[in-house]
Amino acid sequence: MRALLIYAHPNHRSLNYAFFEAAQKGMQQNAAIHEIDMLDLYAEKFDPVLVFHENKRRRDMHKDPELEVYRKKIKQADLLVFVYPIFWGRPPAMLLGFIDQVFAANFAYRHDSLLPEGLLAGKRAVCVSTMKGPRFYSRFFLHNAHKVLMKKALFQFVGIRKVKLFEFGGMEKKNGKQQKYLDQTAAYFRKLAK
Length: 194
Known about the structure:
Family: Belongs to the NAD(P)H dehydrogenase (quinone) family.
Protein name: NAD(P)H dehydrogenase (Quinone)
Strand content: 15-25%
Structural class: alpha/beta
Oligomer: single chain
GO molecular function: NAD(P)H dehydrogenase (quinone) activity
InterPro entries: Flavodoxin_fold, Flavoprotein-like_sf, NAD(P)H_dehydrogenase_qn
Number of domains: 1
Number of helices: 6
Distance between the termini: 7 Å
Keywords: Oxidoreductase
Largest sheet: 5 strands, parallel
Radius of gyration: 17 Å
CATH superfamily: Flavodoxin domain
């Protein structure tokens, strides 16, 4: 299995980076994962801003040469892993801008009829996210907005059916169980099978 590990946080000394490292460590100890490619959107200086004009049209995004390297990484991967914080009940703008541009029509999906056809079928996705507030806040007060966005509006739309979301809440508390969740993340990726 080939994995693509995508990191969307500006700080390499953050708890999110510790989750990135835990996921990477677990994958390295998993015999089913024979290749791990990593993508740090901030280190890459990925520009999340969508730009359209007469020479750059939305319908041609799947052919944008500046995004080809990212499309190739996604196409080659069997497993897509995203590590990011949850801001305002959703992933950071950096990750959303990446998704807007790279998961384009005629690459990630085709919409020729009433219902879309996902072109990334057969892949698996895992999101490892952290939030300051408690987990129940996202679930009950925001009606699982993050889960609906990532699992249904994104992954299922593009054909990815095997989706796992980790939403670790209370991460800024001194007793926020950070180490327990880091260990859980590493263990999950260590045992993940095709």
